[in-house]
TrEMBL record:
Signal peptide: none annotated. Belongs to the ATP-dependent AMP-binding enzyme family. This is Propionyl-CoA synthetase. Residues 64-444 form the AMP-dependent synthetase/ligase domain. CDD domains: PrpE. InterPro entries: ACAS_N (IPR032387), AMP-bd_C (IPR025110), AMP-bd_C_sf (IPR045851), AMP-binding_CS (IPR020845), AMP-dep_synth/lig_dom (IPR000873), ANL_N_sf (IPR042099). Gene3D superfamilies: 3.30.300.30, N-terminal domain of ligase-like. It comes from Antarcticimicrobium luteum. Residues 3-57 form the Acetyl-coenzyme A synthetase N-terminal domain.
Length: 630
């Protein structure tokens, strides 16, 4: 069947479409229907079914006689380690870990924070929670103690599972001291912490609170899978909003399983038994959906890659992994390709490897610029599919469903809507606009299975952030347009979220940190264009009256402050002192205008600006730190 037919089939009979997709999942009790709309505009899927995510990701493949198939390949150029874990081995390891957690009181509905680097144990921890019906919340290792503490206080975990350390090029990231620091700041305290001691750094355990990953599993009964309701939260994943308080995206269990499983063949075009690789991190949604759950639920082999696209040891690492492990579909962020292209523009490393098994490259997480797409396609000689989605949706909103039909790829576009998504472009008043017209990208409710039903402990915020601006729609926070053939083009965010190396960050959160510096009276953080990372944060600082310390000293302290509070992943290294910030007459800081000045783009003088002369001052200050570049 062609894409158009499948999309139309969904549109004409969404209930039938999703009930059929649900047949690919093992249910303890089958759901009576797909959509539950009794509480609209809040929706649920498969709510009265009973299911277990770990069973579907692990045990069922063993039961089906495929236990010897490799489930996880761990390839860590940064530690010179490789490991292969079969489905049966994974089942045994996860059941044992789940048994140990249960023996210490972790039960269905309890939250468990996971703070781990890219090691297979991170997936095992996620799956062990799923086995018990416990709700995991993975925190990315590049976040600092404060961010971890905020998440601990929000989701109140019974237990935290962490590794002793992570490894970044040239340095060991001391996870355990970061965890200890977070627990000093957090009001909520977990009952216990499980620490995976890595040989690169053995951490000191706190008597009475911390247990050793291996030790605490000794002699316990392995746990069976606990059936949960279809709408039971599988996990909470915090993502950046406009303020310093991250949003806890809730992922419901059944819809997640159905949608992810559907996407593996239809979008990513892999069959069970084939190798699928998403080079991301378990701390991001790509890692949840496409390193852990989707490939395993679909019976693929997934790769846990601990390294970087360049420097571990060179710009050929990705090609080595693809050829050595026979990767069929590969998914990463455009930034990774920009980094490789910069190191190896002629593709000398590409030539060294046999990449003939690779079928398609998938890019997401940030805008894919045409240069990068063309370079990737020319080097790898496979179609390059840009696809667009968000932490909130958990799987692609638009893309080219290569397993259905190899529709034309249009460079600059992130493709066509997946079944389940009715994507529309709206004007400010909420009316749909015609083709090729820029507007807010919105999705007609209900969103499909697998997407967020609400925010953790924050239903009001969910309604306000996503549902209220355009009644009847989910507001994505992106701006873009749709062409006459139905292809979507994402152009920019409509809020203060920026995208740095494929990592979603809040400028508002950085402003909150900077405002705490005693010498900073007022500040703004904007996202400026960067050739490698797409965007970089840049701080504009107004100092408190009477401060006469060297500005460079204050700037350095501010950079350290953001790194210390939010973490190195913020990549906050640019800041400049200014006398005043440009504002509208009602006092709103004109961030978008400052972005245009920093990027050297034309801009229209905002009609509501209070004092246009301030823009010249901003331009002069930015010039002192090399903006606009080039
Ligand atoms: N734990 C601790 N620190 C981390 C970390 C982690 N898991 N991940 C990143 N960091 C640190 C980095 O070491 C770096 O620190 P530094 O300022 O001391 O150098 C900082 O956070 C910024 O990291 P990053 O943005 O990744 O930049 P980089 O300069 O280290 O690497 C790239 C550049 C392009 C190679 C890298 O950004 C990359 O691989 N990006 C792909 C992004 C991706 O997969 N996104 C997921 C969405 S699909
Ligand atoms: P995250 O929740 O971290 O996945 O970030 C989601 C945001 O990243 C989206 O709202 C977009 O702003 C951006 N994004 C993700 N994928 C794409 C893409 N293919 N093209 C353009 N922007 C993207």
């Amino acid at each position: 069947m062609a894409y158009d037919e499948i999309y139309a089939r969904w549109k004409n009979d969404p209930e039938g479409f999703w009930m059929e997709a649900a047949e690919a999942i093992d249910w303890v009790e089958k759901p009576s229907r797909a959509l539950f709309d009794g509480n609209a505009p809040l929706y649920e899927w498969f709510a009265d079914g009973k299911v277990n995510a770990c069973w579907n990701a692990v045990d069922r493949h063993v039961e089906a006689g495929r236990g010897e198939q490799i489930a996880i390949i761990y390839d860590s150029p940064i530690t010179h380690t490789k490991r292969w874990i079969s489905y049966v081995e994974l089942r045994n390891r996860v059941a044992q870990l789940a048994g140990a957690l249960r023996a210490r009181g972790v039960e269905k509905g309890d939250r468990v924070i996971i703070y781990m680097p890219m090691v297979p144990e991170a997936l095992e921890a996620m799956l062990a929670c799923a086995r018990l019906g416990a709700v995991h919340s993975v925190v990315f290792g590049g976040f600092a103690a404060h961010e971890l503490a905020v998440r601990i206080d929000d989701c109140k975990p019974k237990c935290i599972i962490a590794a002793s350390c992570g490894i970044e090029p040239g340095r060991v990231v001391h996870y355990k001291p970061l965890l200890d620091g977070a627990l000093e700041h957090a009001e909520h305290q977990p009952e216990f912490c499980v620490i995976l001691q890595r040989e690169q750094e053995v951490a000191k355990l706190e008597e009475g609170r911390d247990v050793n990953w291996h030790g605490f599993q000794y002699g316990v009964e392995p746990a069976d899978c606990v059936p949960v309701e279809g709408n039971h939260p599988a996990y909470i994943l915090y993502t950046s909003g406009t303020t310093g308080q991250p949003k806890g995206v809730v992922r419901p269990t059944a819809g997640h399983l159905v949608a992810l499983n559907w996407s593996m063949k239809n979008l990513y075009n892999v069959d069970p038994g084939e190798v699928f690789w998403a080079a991301s991190d378990v701390g991001w949604v790509v890692g949840h959906s496409y390193i852990c759950y989707a490939p395993l639920v679909h019976g693929n082999t997934t790769i846990v890659f601990e390294g970087k696209p360049i420097g571990t040891p060179d710009a050929g690492t990705f090609w080595r992994v693809i050829s050595e492990h026979k990767v069929r579909s590969f998914f990463t962020a455009p930034t990774a390709f920009r980094a490789i292209k910069r190191e190896d523009p002629k593709g000398e490393f590409v030539k060294k490897y046999d990449l003939s098994g690779l079928r398609t490259l998938y890019l997401a997480g940030e805008r894919a610029d045409p240069d990068t797409i063309n370079w990737a396609r020319d080097q790898l000689k496979v179609p390059v599919v840009d696809h667009w989605w968000q932490t909130e949706t958990g799987w692609a909103i638009t893309g080219i469903p290569m397993g259905i039909e190899q529709k034309k790829v249009k460079i600059g576009s992130s493709g066509l809507p997946m079944p389940g998504y009715d994507v529309q472009i709206l004007d400010e008043a909420g009316h749909p606009v015609g083709p090729d017209t820029l507007g807010a990208v919105a999705i007609k409710l209900p969103l499909p299975p697998g997407t967020l039903p609400t925010l953790w402990n924050a239903e009001d915020r969910y309604r306000k952030s996503y549902l209220e601006h355009f009644p009847g729609y989910y507001e994505t926070g992106d701006a873009g347009m749709i062409d006459a053939d139905g292809y979507l083009y994402i152009m920019a965010r409509t809020d203060d979220v920026i995208n740095v190396a494929g990592h979603r960050l809040s400028t508002g959160a950085m402003e909150e940190v900077l405002a705490n510096h005693p010498d900073v009276a007022e500040c703004a953080v904007i996202g400026v264009a960067d050739d490698l990372k797409g965007q970089l944060p840049l701080g504009l600082l107004c100092l408190t009256k009477g401060v006469n310390r060297p500005e460079s000293e204050i700037v350095r302290e501010c950079v350290d402050l953001v790194r210390g509070e939010i973490g190195p992943v913020a990549a906050f290294k640019l800041a400049v002192v200014v006398d005043r910030l440009p504002k509208t007459r009602s006092g709103k800081i004109l961030r978008a205008t400052m972005v245009k000045i920093a990027d050297g783009e034309e801009f229209k003088m905002p009609a509501t600006i209070d004092d246009p002369a301030i823009l010249d001052e901003i331009a002069a200050a930015l010039k002192t730190i090399g903006f606009p570049q080039g």
